[in-house]
Specification:
The structure holds two protein chains of two kinds. By secondary structure, chain A is mostly helical. Chain A has helices spanning about 1-20, 20-35, 50-55, 60, 75-80, 85-90. Chain B has helices spanning about 1-15, 20-30, 60-75, 105-110, 115-125, 130-140, 140-150, 180-195, 255-260, 280-285, 315-325, 345-355, 370-375, 385-395, 400-415, 490-505; strands spanning about 50-60, 80, 95-100, 170-175, 200, 200-210, 215-220, 235-245, 290, 295-300, 325-330, 335, 355-360, 380-385, 435-440, 445-450, 450, 460, 465-475. In chain B, the strands form five sheets. In chain B, strands 1, 2, 5, 6, 7, 8, 18 and 19 form an eight-stranded mixed beta sheet that branches. In chain B, strands 12-11-13-15-14 form a five-stranded antiparallel beta sheet, with helices on both faces. In chain B, strands 3-4 form a two-stranded antiparallel sheet. Classes of the chains: A mainly alpha, B alpha+beta. The interface between A and B is medium-sized, with 16 and 22 residues. The complex binds flavin-adenine dinucleotide. Flavin-adenine dinucleotide binds near residues 63, 95, 180, 272 and 495 of chain B.
Chain lengths: ~140, ~525
């Protein structure tokens, strides 16, 4: 019960403050990380090289439009990366093509494997032993 | 009947007069209506539901999607949920083999088959434990279900019928992409076309069965993260017509499966998706669904111990080594079972040899085996110029093994396997054409035959053999269709047939509110 209240309060605070920019998000995340060791916000100050090289800032992904809790969803990723079929084309030379599964096709959420603020993982690895390093 | 009502009555009176008040206060403060359930399955209903549907389907595999499609097409406001971040459960990673008795493909190949013959095959493998009426429905509607996937959903199949173990004739359709996704993805497209919401990361926590015995709604966790207990937000959904539980089997629930069959412990590998766990079955049991034959857990005899999960090696076993080749035990160099016997017979036989078996086929045998290059590349299947080289790699007793092949080839030529009784397909040839292919075989946990009892309308049956109003189940979570042993390719048929029945039936339920 109590923890549910916190989630709601936390969500309101975050949505309210996101407009005032990254600094407050960072501070709040720091606060919640210490208090609740939240992995929703994770290590919010680190960016993967390919995103920092592209000079992205926090609000490029964490926008007011994000459907849930300012967390970017697959659609937000696709704003820059094109549609899923196009993403699959980018790795068409790989076998197996990590973006075009025989089971799910290209229609899997990006964050099943790719994480921005923590180490990425290989979702296929749950059932298959072939490993591919996930950026 | 009257008696038990009286008992309830007096219990209620008793509660009123005694400690009931304290309990009432507790319930009221949690925001529920002021009634204390008397039946152990009953839960106080939420005062206010967060949302409302006609039909709620749990699980997005063959069975759940078939149910959702039928319910929505019959006009019911339907929602499908799945706890995983991906749709399709075991179905979308499945091998894509589905049996149909009396199909147009069989007509074309002049194969004489009938629902009755399929029924006999199922009962033979099932050791007669099959619930006969259910097995009848599956066989009688098998062809209709497969044709539905083609005509209504646009699924595509290869030209030939496959002859799988335990079936007396070739009767298995095989999806063009060699995967269950060849059926699930067309199902998902249909779900999308029909505008049925499919909510992933949505975990069924609890089903509300009211004091009057009827199912009234559910609690789910939205935004659930797989394996993170308590993640996401708890939401109540009022379900006006009924709930279809199509949450699949529990072969990947090591604790629960080991209780049912201690031999299938944590040392046994598993072919299933990670979400094949027992919580929905346990919830059904809490609602007083009758459990059927939970300890019949099937091991797949065609799996390769050198790869994780189902992998791809099974494709070599079922397409080449078993129908067109042989399986030997390295120590003896001999065959030890009919390679096309049912799964239980073969899996037990392999385990009884005490060592990994070796499946063998020649170039003729692998002609129709998809992905052979991939298996070779990953070292799962190995290729040799001579049978001696193959024997050396797998440390097979060469002298005996040569005799085995010589004898087997004479069986093929005569058309009769007088040693193990394997039925030969018409295009079966002696093992003589190099190169030769080999693969290790060791069984893995694959399918849970047991589950909740249903009737031929897919209604869940309670401990006293009464229907639980508003509760339906279909697919691997149910028990009885397959008895002790499920034949290959009959699971899809079962899921499609009973999923469709459940969807049609639930849509016709009278709404309780
Ligand atoms: C690798 C493999 C290959 C196979 N090949 C074949 C084959 O070729 N032919 C054949 O006939 N059979 C085959 N089978 C068996 C067959 O695939 C399964 O029996 C069938 O897919 C079961 O379908 P289902 O709809 O009952 O369940 P599933 O497809 O498993 O779907 C159940 C869904 O319910 C969800 N769920 C579970 N619990 C909850 C919860 N608490 N809340 C919300 N959602 C929940 C799961 O996440 C899952 O997505 C194979 C099985 C495997 C594992």
């Amino acid at each position: 019960m109590a923890s549910e209240c916190f989630i709601i309060i936390k969500r309101r605070i975050i949505i309210g403050l996101s407009l005032t920019g990254c600094v407050s998000i960072f501070l709040i995340s720091l606060f919640y990380q210490t208090v609740f060791s939240s992995d929703v916000l994770g290590n919010a100050n680190s960016l993967k090289a390919y995103h920092s090289d592209a000079e992205l800032s926090c609000n490029d992904c964490h926008t007011v439009e994000n459907e849930v809790q300012n967390i970017p969803a697959t659609d937000d990723c696709l704003e820059c990366h094109g549609d899923m079929e196009a993403v699959a084309q980018l790795t068409a030379d790989k076998d197996p093509n990590p973006h075009d599964s025989p089971h799910y096709g290209p229609y899997l959420d990006c964050d099943l494997c790719h994480h921005e603020h923590k180490i990425s993982e290989n979702y296929c690895g749950g059932c298959h032993e072939w490993v591919s390093s996930v950026p | 009947m009257k008696d038990s009502k009286q008992k309830q009555f007096s219990r209620r009176q008793f509660l009123k007069a005694t400690g009931g008040a304290t309990a009432l206060a507790g319930v009221a403060s949690a925001g529920f209506i002021m009634a204390i359930p008397q039946k152990s399955f009953a839960m106080p209903l939420p005062k206010k539901w967060d949302s409302e549907v006609d039909v709620l389907v749990i699980g997005s595999g063959f069975a759940g999607l078939a149910a959702g499609i039928e319910a929505a097409e019959a006009g019911a406001v339907t929602v499908i949920i799945d706890k995983m971040p991906v749709p399709g459960g075991n179905s979308i990673i499945n091998g894509g083999l589905v049996s149909a008795a009396g199909s147009p493909k069989q007509d074309k190949e002049k194969i004489n088959d009938s629902p009755d013959l399929m029924y006999k095959d199922m009962l033979k493998a099932g050791l007669g434990l099959n619930h006969q009426a259910l097995a009848r429905v599956v066989t009688e509607k098998s062809n209709e279900a497969v044709q539905w996937t083609i005509k209504h959903l646009g699924a595509q199949y290869k030209d030939r019928n496959l002859h799988l173990g335990g079936h007396s004739v070739p009767r298995s359709y095989y999806t063009t992409n060699s995967s269950g996704s060849g059926i699930v993805r067309p199902q998902l497209n249909k779900v999308k076309d029909l505008g049925i919401p499919l909510k992933l990361n949505c975990y069924l926590e609890q089903v509300y069965r009211d004091e009057d015995g009827r199912i009234k709604g559910v609690n789910v966790r939205e935004g659930y993260k797989f394996l993170k207990e308590g993640s996401g937000q708890s939401i109540s959904i009022k379900v006006r017509r009924g709930v279809v539980v199509a949450a699949g089997g529990f072969a990947n629930d090591v604790i629960y499966r080991k209780i049912q069959d201690p031999k299938v412990d944590d040392k046994v590998q598993c072919t299933n998706h990670q979400g094949a766990t027992a919580e929905c079955l346990k919830e059904l049991l809490r609602l007083h669904a009758n459990p059927v034959q939970l300890s019949w857990i099937q091991l797949g005899p065609w799996s390769c111990p050198l790869e994780k999960g189902m992998g791809i090696g099974y494709i070599f076993a079922i397409n080449a080594a078993f129908p067109y080749g042989i399986m030997v035990s390295p120590k003896t160099g001999k065959r030890f079972i009919n390679e096309l016997a049912d799964r239980k017979i073969r899996a037990d036989a392999i385990i009884n040899t005490g060592e990994w078996a070796v499946g063998i086929a020649d170039q003729e045998g692998v002609k129709r085996t998809a992905k052979i290059d991939k298996m070779l590349e990953r070292g799962i299947v190995k290729k040799f110029d001579t049978i001696e080289a193959l024997a050396k790699e797998y440390k097979i007793n060469v002298a005996e093994y040569k005799k085995t092949i010589f004898q087997y080839n004479s069986f093929v030529k005569s058309g009769k396997d007088t040693e193990w009784g394997k039925p030969f397909q018409s295009d079966c040839k002696p093992i003589t054409t190099p190169p030769f292919y080999g693969m290790y075989l060791w069984p893995k946990a694959h399918h849970t035959m047991g589950g909740a009892q249903i009737n031929t309308k897919a209604q869940v049956i309670d401990l006293n053999q009464n229907v639980i109003p508003g509760l339906y189940a279909a697919g691997e979570i149910t028990g009885g269709v397959h008895g002790a042993v499920r034949l290959g390719s009959v699971a899809i048929t079962d899921c499609l047939v009973f999923g469709r029945i459940a969807g049609k039936q639930v849509a016709g339920e009278k709404p309780w509110a």
